[in-house]
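Onboarding guide, step 5: your first structure request.
Type a short instruction followed by the sequence, for example:

Predict the 3D structure of this protein.
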Amino acid sequence: MDWLKDPGFLGTHATIGADLSQFMATLFTGLFILGWIQAKQRKADAHHWLMLGGMISMLSFFIAYYLFRQLGVLAVEGKEGFGGSQALYDYVFIPVLTLHIILVIIGLVMAVYMIVLGFRSQQVVDGVRSLRESILLTTWKKVGLIFGGVTVVVLGLFFSRVATAGFSMRKLEVYLGLLLLVGIVLAVEITIQRIWPDGGRRHRALGRFTMVIYCILFATGTFTYTMLYILYPGKIG
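The system replies with structure tokens like these:
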């Protein structure tokens, strides 16, 4: 798939891969905003299918894009990819890029979590879908089973990467970091359910939080794209 490194289609200094990532980020953000509007309008069924399809598509695309192709990592491999000053690189570009990467991880985890929570907190009565206004709690035993299942999947992905691309401490750190983040999210769920024991209310609150994350994620991604490929293009891109 070397064609992804060819000049992009948006008329900037970006590659096709970078332009594709920016285009898909714009598309998914637009879909999620539309889904949020549908939720506000109480169009539960339309909201359910749009968000479910959008989140599954987003997860599939970005996991394949970042994890397996490892595109976009050139932006953090050195100053040669950035044409601006060293001060701008150190104090503006890298902090925003770091925030963006953190939000990507949180956003992917929240996508999985919200899909699961959506199914757990919904009800369909006479063909009408709605949130169930009732207590929805998760036990530590269930959390342990979930974390164990996630661990098996993550380790499977890690060893498959090692088999195809070789072992490195950076790969190990990434996958262990993912497990740590999942563990933290599950622990937070135990805490949050004490604040919002009602499943429907929890879904609405965390849905708003996730929507804010995605909007900030889009803003930081667009900012880094603009700096890297429009304002200060370097040797890369």
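Each response can be followed by summary notes, for example: Residues 71-77 have pLDDT under 50 and may be disordered.
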